[in-house]
Design a protein that fits this description.
The chain has helices at about 20-25, 40-50, 105-115, 135-140, 165-170; strands at about 10-15, 55-60, 65-75, 85-95, 125-130, 145-150, 155-160. The protein is α+β, with helices and mostly antiparallel strands and about 180 residues long. The chain binds coenzyme A.
Length: about 180
């Protein structure tokens, strides 16, 4: 299943520190993808501005090379004013030089391994801007499903982290 196929370079999620922050901030999507995702610098600023939503972010590394960035709302409180889902994939990008190598899928695998350690993580929600070049197909291919909801101008998707999803994709679930 899709969750099992990964690129050969070991894919890890690493903390962003003073030592690697500058190189992670250099990561860029293609110019035509800018409408679908904010960059690393603005994501880090958003994280600083919204601590109540429990932003949690990591750099995505293939071996020792930074290739992307991921940010979630990590157990957001029920009445949070910004993020309405407990576990929400807030930002994800793979630098244009490294797209199409399975790193996006492998990063989701790592993220889900982390979510298995988190309380009450029975689903991961995200939202995408639809249209030409949208990442919608990437998420559907992974196993996310549409919910029919909208979050501002974004279509809401959810990935159940339960036994049925685990049967279809052993990487995905269940969480503890
Ligand atoms: C979307 C993104 C994270 C995918 O990462 P990636 O490393 O290029 O994707 P992968 O190589 O892991 O692709 C996994 C599978 O999804 C497919 N896929 C990737 N991007 C896709 C897209 N935009 N539409 C449809 N399918 C897509 C791949 O063909 C691959 O399919 P396979 O199972 O047949 O091999 C990355 O392209 C990206 O950062 N895009 C720009 C920013 C963005 O849109 N981020 C998401 C914001 S919500």
């Amino acid at each position: 299943m899709s969750g099992l196929r990964e690129s050969s370079a070991e894919l890890t999620l690493r903390e962003i520190t003073e030592a690697n922050r500058a190189e992670v901030e250099q990561l860029r999507v293609r110019p035509d993808q800018d409408t679908f995702v904010d960059g690393v610098v603005s994501s880090l600023a958003e994280a600083s501005a919204t601590p109540a939503s429990n932003p949690w972010y990591r750099a995505i590394y293939a071996g020792d090379t930074p290739v992307g960035f991921v940010m979630i709302a990590n157990d957001a409180p029920a009445q949070d004013k910004v993020i309405r889902w407990r576990y929400y994939l807030w930002r994800m990008l793979i630098d244009s030089r490294y797209q199409g190598r399975g790193y996006g899928r492998a990063a989701l695998n790592r993220l889900i391994e982390y979510l298995r350690t988190r309380p009450g993580a029975d689903e991961l929600v995200t939202s995408v801007v639809p249209g030409e070049g949208s990442p919608l197909g990437f998420y559907l291919r992974y196993g996310f499903e549409t919910t029919g909801e909208w979050f501002d101008h974004e279509q809401v998707l959810r990935l159940p982290l339960n036994a049925e999803t685990a049967r279809r994709n052993p990487i995905v679930g269940p969480t503890g």
